[in-house]
């Protein structure tokens, strides 16, 4: 083979190799990412700057403004509706735990002068009533705030034979425990109420509140803890069998030492 032919073949081979490398590079070239910026109509919403506990008194540092989609800000406090909200809500009391970054709404806080902590967390139309408890009548003090219980009355009555009988009646069912002693919130890591707590504060209707006060003068009150799976969907306390038994008007008959008397309740 002539020298000129060898040179031609070599040049052709090199050219083919260069073309192969170039084509391979083009095929492996990554696709360019295209970013499209879409402007969303947003507003500044007042949120919790840090976690706010139940009953905690807030200050201006408890809040911050955060960008929020305008379409999802309905019911929230915005910089357009109230730019002075931080200052105005300083000193307010939290009606429920608020997580950091959670939007603030008017019903989550109660302003100073509108009541104490317990009044702030009490639902409209309900009453807070306390009753004495002890270890053997309160599930070994394992009941905690926000648990639900049945309220049972144990009373003594005179039997037909003249002897003393003990009668148990379920006064109320599905009653929320607001506080134990002065503890209104379950503390982290705590599995039982404070040992010094000797009262339980219950959430009742006005009629039930009066009935409980009457029942405490008739006998001993016990609390029966309800399972979470058994909670009433309405979340409201119900009347037990003691209040549903046939009676004259709205009264409870009591036998004390053989003498019949009548304790009148609420209509």
Tell me what the structure shows.
The protein has 267 residues and is α+β, with helices and mostly antiparallel strands. The chain folds into 2 domains: 42-121, Antifreeze-like/N-acetylneuraminic acid synthase C-terminal domain (Type Iii Antifreeze Protein Isoform Hplc 12, Alpha-Beta Complex); 127-264, no CATH class. Helices cover 19% and strands 30% of the residues. The protein has 5 helices and 12 strands. The chain has helices at 3-27, 85-89, 117-121, 206-216, 241-244; strands at 42-48, 63-69, 93-94, 109-110, 127-132, 148-158, 164-180, 199-204, 219-225, 238-239, 251-256, 259-264. β11 and β12 form a beta hairpin.
* Number of helical stretches of at least 4 residues: 5
For the termini, the CA-CA separation is: 124 Å
Fraction of residues in β-strands: 25-35%
Number of domains: 2
Mean pLDDT, rounded to whole units? 76
Uncertain spans: 246-252, 254-267
Task: Describe, in short, the structure shown.
It is built from five helices and twelve strands.
Comma- or semicolon-separated keywords:
267 residues, Type Iii Antifreeze Protein Isoform Hplc 12, 2 domains, two-stranded antiparallel sheet, 5 helices
């Amino acid at each position: 083979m002539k020298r000129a032919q060898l040179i031609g073949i070599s040049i052709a081979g090199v050219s083919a190799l260069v073309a192969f490398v170039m084509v391979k590079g083009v095929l492996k070239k990554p696709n360019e990412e295209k970013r499209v910026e879409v402007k969303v109509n947003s507003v500044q919403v007042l949120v919790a700057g840090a976690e706010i506990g139940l009953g905690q008194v807030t200050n201006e540092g408890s809040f911050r403004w955060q960008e929020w989609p305008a379409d999802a800000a309905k019911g929230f406090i915005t910089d357009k509706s109230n730019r002075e909200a931080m200052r105005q809500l300083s000193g307010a009391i939290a009606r429920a735990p608020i997580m950091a970054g959670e939007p603030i709404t008017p019903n989550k806080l109660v302003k100073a002068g509108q009541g104490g902590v317990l009044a702030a967390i009490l639902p409209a139309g309900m009453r807070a009533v306390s009753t004495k408890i002890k270890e053997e009548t309160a599930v070994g003090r394992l009941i905690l705030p926000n648990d639900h219980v049945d309220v049972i009355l144990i009373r003594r009555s005179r039997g037909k034979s003249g002897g003393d009988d003990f009668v148990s009646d379920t006064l109320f069912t599905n009653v929320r425990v607001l506080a134990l002693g002065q503890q209104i919130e379950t503390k982290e890591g705590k599995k039982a109420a404070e040992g010094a707590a000797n009262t339980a504060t219950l959430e009742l209707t006005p009629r039930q509140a009066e009935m409980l006060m009457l029942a405490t003068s008739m006998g001993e009150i016990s609390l029966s803890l309800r399972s979470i799976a058994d909670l009433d969907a309405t979340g409201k306390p119900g009347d037990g069998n003691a209040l549903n038994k046939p009676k004259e008007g709205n009264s409870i008959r009591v036998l004390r030492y053989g003498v019949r008397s009548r304790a009148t309740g609420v209509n």
